[in-house]
Amino acid sequence: MAASPALPFRIFRRSLLDTRWATRSSLRRITTVQHAATSESVPESLLRLRAHPIPTRELPTTAKPTSTPSIPKRKRRDRPQAPLPASNAPRAAPPQPESLLQDDQIDPSIYKLLPLLKSQPPYYLRTHIHGKPYLVTQGDTVRLPFLMHGVSQGDILRLNRASLLGSRDYTLKAGAPREAGKMAYIDERLFTCRARVMGVEMEPLRVKEKTKRRQRHVKHVKSKHRYTVLRIMEITVNEPPVEGDAEKLAKDSA
């Protein structure tokens, strides 16, 4: 009689189940018990060590890491800070400029031609303010491209730097400068130019956008500049000084 093929499979399955139940029963039997350490369970050698600790000189020593010497820091002297000027307070006038590059002796031809220039008003003048030229006549309004400090509305200014003075038919120009790189001006004794400070103008608010490459942030810079406005009140041609007076002025200046 042949054995059925399902019989070995049943035997193998039963053996696996028996081993599984055996491992579970063994795991259930294992329990953990917490034991508290008492003086009876601790050996006497350890108790003696606790009662008589080892002196520190007998303990192994390790070399301490060497530290680099610290350099003493220099004491920073607290310098007294200058007080900041008040924003609303008017600034002082700029220092007086150096003497103009003009000849002490007037050319003899000026004594002959200057009366002809004087006989033909109105006059025009090319005056220089802070190194910038302005071609003006009497009654003109000049808006300076900056804010002039040290002046207020209603002040009268004398513009004594000019490189050109003329009328319809005659023109007086400044000579060549004695030093290279400097500007020569007409002798201030030959003309008079006065201007009145009308006030201060403010331009409309400007907003400029500043960006950088590959960045989304946009910086807005606001500016609102102020400018001083002058009105030319007088332009006259003076009488040429007498030769004796010119020599006296040259001696006094020397």
Automatic annotation (TrEMBL):
Do you know which InterPro entries this protein is assigned to?
Answer: bL21-like, bL21-like_sf
Name the domain of life: Eukaryota
Report the Pfam families cross-referenced here: Ribosomal_L21p
Q: Where is this region: Disordered?
A: 52-102
Q: Which GO terms describe its molecular function?
A: structural constituent of ribosome
Entry's Gene Ontology cellular component terms: mitochondrial large ribosomal subunit
Annotated family? Belongs to the bacterial ribosomal protein bL21 family.
Name of the protein in question? Large ribosomal subunit protein bL21m
Write down the species: Verruconis gallopava
